[in-house]
């Protein structure tokens, strides 16, 4: 009989959880500042935007697509939301709703262009990323919007002990995504299309519609990340999203997402984000050159891709 311990070890997230536990213990022993309330708050606050951005990329990876426009669309939504609140004086809920609609519309455009033209999503989103960035810079002329409503900025910095209020939306998003993928027909169809598009079509699943859905949800989550980033910074910076692309790929891939589609995990992606934030924080505490963070992310991605490939080859042989 398989023991409970063996079942836990068999889970794909077990290695990530072990790495997080080991890293936490190591940092706690080597740096007295690591487990302070403020440092935990800083890590959780950093976790918020990265998690949502990772989920945005994860959904397109689920159907075997790539979305290179996540950061550019996020930056556009950020300046639009900030501009609507500062220049137009719109209430916070109205500006947020408008930003979410813009994000979903941008994702919808990516999906429709991909399925209607038959061009790979990599190329389509590369082109739309340039378009979104151009609109962003055309609106702002690279000048941020600083005069955000006090309540909006307060939400971005408020906390209960070490728990930032900013963490609430990402947790809700994670729970909703888990239910969507596991309990709804469109969620299961999304994974079916990524796993085997031809078989999915033969089963009556509308492949093109599901690809459009994945891109639309990806755009929506990009908008969520952008709005959280504006609240976090206290201003709508045109550069928001500029550094999202690598992070958006790193977390799902380290979490075991298949590049060919059909396999993603909300829990593993979230744990991968925790590991990335832990590494970043540990390097800051150790006063390591920040450029090494990028090196570590690249190394983790290569290791994760290699591990996934080894698992696939082993499954084929068996």
TrEMBL record:
The membrane-spanning stretches of this chain are 12-34, 40-59, 66-84, 90-112, 119-139, 162-182, 210-234, 240-259, 266-285, 291-310
- Specify the superkingdom: Bacteria
Q: Which UniProt keywords apply?
A: Cell membrane, Membrane, Transmembrane, Transmembrane helix
Q: How does it sit in the membrane?
A: Multi-pass membrane protein
Where is the protein situated, by its record's location annotation?
A: Cell membrane
* Name of this protein: Ribose transport system permease protein
Q: Which organism is it from?
A: Kaistia geumhonensis
């Amino acid at each position: 009989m398989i023991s409970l311990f063996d079942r836990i070890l068999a889970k794909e997230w077990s290695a990530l959880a072990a790495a997080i536990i080991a890293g936490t213990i190591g940092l706690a022993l080597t740096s007295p500042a690591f487990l302070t309330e403020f440092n935990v708050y800083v890590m959780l606050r950093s976790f918020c935007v990265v998690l949502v951005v990772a989920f945005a990329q994860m959904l397109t990876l689920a159907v075997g697509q790539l979305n290179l426009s996540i950061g550019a669309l996020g930056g556009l939504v950020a300046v639009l939301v900030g501009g609507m609140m500062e220049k137009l004086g719109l209430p916070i809920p109205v500006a947020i709703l408008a930003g979410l609609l813009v994000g979903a519309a941008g994702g919808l455009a990516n999906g429709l262009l991909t399925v209607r033209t038959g061009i790979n999503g990599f190329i389509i989103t590369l082109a739309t990323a340039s378009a979104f960035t151009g609109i962003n810079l055309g609106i702002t002329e690279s000048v941020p919007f600083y005069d955000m409503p006090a309540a909006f900025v307060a939400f971005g910095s408020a906390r209960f002990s070490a728990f930032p209020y900013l963490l609430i939306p990402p947790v809700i998003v994670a729970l909703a995504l888990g239910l969507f993928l596991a309990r709804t027909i469109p969620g299961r169809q999304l994974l079916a299309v990524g796993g085997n598009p031809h078989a999915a079509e033969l089963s009556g699943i509308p492949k093109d519609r599901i690809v459009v859905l994945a891109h639309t949800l990806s755009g929506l989550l990009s908008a969520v990340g952008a709005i959280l980033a504006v609240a976090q910074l206290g201003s709508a910076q045109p550069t928001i999203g500029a550094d999202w692309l690598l992070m958006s790929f790193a977390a799902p891939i380290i979490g075991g997402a298949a590049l060919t589609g059909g396999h993603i995990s909300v829990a593993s992606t979230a744990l991968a984000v925790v590991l990335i934030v832990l590494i970043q924080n540990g390097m800051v505490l150790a006063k390591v050159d920040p450029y090494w963070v990028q090196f570590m992310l690249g190394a983790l991605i290569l290791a994760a891709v290699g591990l996934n490939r080894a698992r696939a080859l082993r499954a084929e042989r068996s």
